[in-house]
Write a structure and sequence with these properties.
Blueprint: E1 2-7, E2 12-13, E3 19-20, E4 24-30, E5 37-41, E6 61-62, E7 67-68, E8 73-77, H1 100-114, E9 121-125, H2 127-138, E10 146-149, H3 157-175, H4 179-194, H5 197-203, E11 209-211, E12 215-217, H6 219-232, H7 237-249, E13 261-266, H8 274-283, E14 287-292, H9 300-303, H10 305-314
Parallel strand pairs: 5-8, 5-9, 6-7, 9-10, 10-13, 13-14
Antiparallel strand pairs: 1-4, 2-3, 4-8, 11-12
Helix pairs in contact: 1-2, 3-4, 3-7, 4-6
């Protein structure tokens, strides 16, 4: 295993204007140098630790799993603007808008540093899928193929609406000295969009309990707030704002992505509707669309290793 922190070109120019000064990108590379290399990218809270005990995708990536690390090298990064070791916002300080293209440019700089001319695949889910698309649009000669799970070439306006409310809640918390409460509520609202109505109907029909004899606490409320509190323990409010905005700023020209693309859509995904990914597949010059069904909705990429296994394996069978 190798890991480090790359100093990006200084200043590092950004897609929407402005620059990052003295920016760094944290990374981790695991596997045998003789094995094919896959860059693995997840949602905005993902990190360079992809698998293993601390890995964010440990149910899907690892020895003998859907992405088999006995056969494939895995490269992960901490996103710029996130809560990892890469350059990120400081509390109370201005931070420029980041694009999925900026994450792609930082990744390309990392490949240069590591002496990697072309990777076998980039596998991205959620925000990571957006970054994979942006990378393929700008650096097609640096990747043989990409896998994109629950991401499209632009966000759906309804998803932007939900995220805008989340950011409004968090900004109100920051402005009133209760940032933790703000991120708890913002994450709780986000969790309600990640999963499906069918899952919530199965899990949360029990009667509420009453606190102090009068205040009802509903099972779904308990769940959402507990997830929000857990998130607030490890994620910076300013990073949530930065990368949530980056999702909504995402735009790529699908007709310029001239590498093979494996697309995965989830029928129950509220954030990235099936119709949007079907439309993306029509615009891509070389795309194959896989549709799965899951009660976990947008979070299916975290929870459905058996459904994802043959799709992920195809990234390393398909000829460029």
């Amino acid at each position: 295993m190798r890991e480090g922190s790359l100093r990006l070109p200084n200043p590092f120019p950004l897609h929407h204007g402005g620059v990052l000064a003295g920016a760094t990108l944290a990374w981790r590379l695991e596997g045998l140098p003789t094995d094919p290399l896959c860059v693995v990218l997840g949602g905005i809270s993902a990190s360079r630790r992809v698998f293993g005990e601390e890995g964010w995708w440990r149910e899907v990536v690892g020895p003998g799993l859907a992405l088999d690390t006995d056969r494939v090298q895995v490269l992960g990064i901490d996103y710029l603007g996130g809560s990892g070791r890469s350059t990120r916002p400081e509390p109370g300080q201005p931070f420029p808008a980041l694009s999925s293209h900026d994450q792609a440019a930082a990744l390309c700089a990392l490949l240069d540093e590591l002496g990697i001319a072309c990777v076998q695949a980039i596998l991205g889910a959620s925000y990571g899928g957006m970054v994979a698309l942006a990378f393929a649009e700008r650096f097609a000669d640096r990747v043989a193929r990409i896998g994109v799970i629950s991401a499209a070439d632009m966000p759906h306006p309804m998803a932007t609406a939900w995220r805008s409310v989340q950011r409004g809640i968090l900004r109100m918390g920051l402005a009133n000295g209760c940032a933790r409460e703000g991120i708890v509520l913002a994450r709780a609202l986000a969790m309600s969009t990640y999963r499906s109505a069918e899952e919530f109907a199965e899990r949360f029909r029990a009667e509420p309990r009453f606190e102090d004899g009068s205040h009802p606490v509903f099972p779904v409320e308990d769940y959402l707030l507990s997830r929000g509190r857990a998130y607030a323990d490890s994620y910076l409010p300013e990073s949530f704002l930065c990368l949530s905005e980056s999702i909504d700023l995402h735009r790529v020209d699908a007709t310029r992505i001239d590498v093979p693309v494996e697309l995965v859509a989830v029928r129950e995904d509220q954030l990235v509707p099936l119709a949007d990914i079907e439309a993306l597949a029509e615009r891509l010059p070389q795309a194959r669309l896989h549709t799965i069904s899951s009660l976990y909705g947008h979070d299916a990429f975290l929870k459905e290793p058996d459904q994802l296994r043959p799709i992920i394996e195809s990234l390393f069978r398909r000829s460029p």
